Amino acid sequence: MAVTVEEAPFVVLDESYRIVEVGPAAEAGFGPLHGRCVWDCFPGSESMYRPHYERVRRRGEPIELVQYYRGYLTKVEIRPEKRAIRVSWEILSMLDTSDLERLRASLTDAIAALDQQAEGLDRRRVRTTLRVVEGIA
Amino acid sequence: MSTRPQRDAPASTAYVVLDANDRVIQVGEDLRDQLAPFLGHVLWERLPDAEPLCSPGFDEARRIGSEVEFPLFYRGRAKRLRAVPAGDTLAVHVERLAELDVTTLGTLKESLLRIEAELPARGSEQLDRPAPASLRALP
After folding, report:
1. Testing the interface with A: which of B72, B73, B108 to mutate, by most A Cβ within 10 A?
2. Do B49 and A130 touch (CB under 8 A)?
3. How many domains does one find in chain B?
4. What's the CATH code of the domain at A122?
């Protein structure tokens, strides 16, 4: 019997934020990414991620954070690898925009998923905003 | 949900025409890219999760024999539907109001506010019902 071990999706970025390595799970989810600038692949993400990437480069230490982008709440790990950085992620929850009830339920799920994360993650800002968003929905 | 007297159809060609069994028998030009493949199919076979959202308005229009207009949030978009009965058929006119932008929490929040502003009456009641936070908390 074959056993498949699923590896978390990841990309490796060089100093100019070009994607120089792509994990199979990331490739399966997003299509060809190799050689492209990560900010072009994920529009609107630069302001959310670049400060963290720069922090990892500066300090040379890995960090974990919870981030929301394009309907997905993900736990992201950023690790320095020589002059590059490796970014891997795990999806915690996703928004369901089918109708208002499902949207509301998925926002509640996102908050619950956030609550399950270990203390120490920089989550206060995301959590507060999600609560406000849930209030709107 | 509101009813209004019969009137001439507007210039928009964003509409579908359903038969008495909700089978799509005509698609207006503005919706052909999305809905042309639905021709000949019962609408709910293709959009099953839309049935509970739309059927009450469609049924009401057929029952009273007059057009019924109602707001709808479906698959990330706020729309206003106008169901106009004509004999055994029902013309459903679709007006897009606002779209959810899930890119960031900021765009999500802003687009939800736009949608809430666009969805009057029934829509706003749906939006507000279980809200644990007040809109006044928003900056």
Report:
1. B108
2. no
3. 1
4. 3.30.450.20
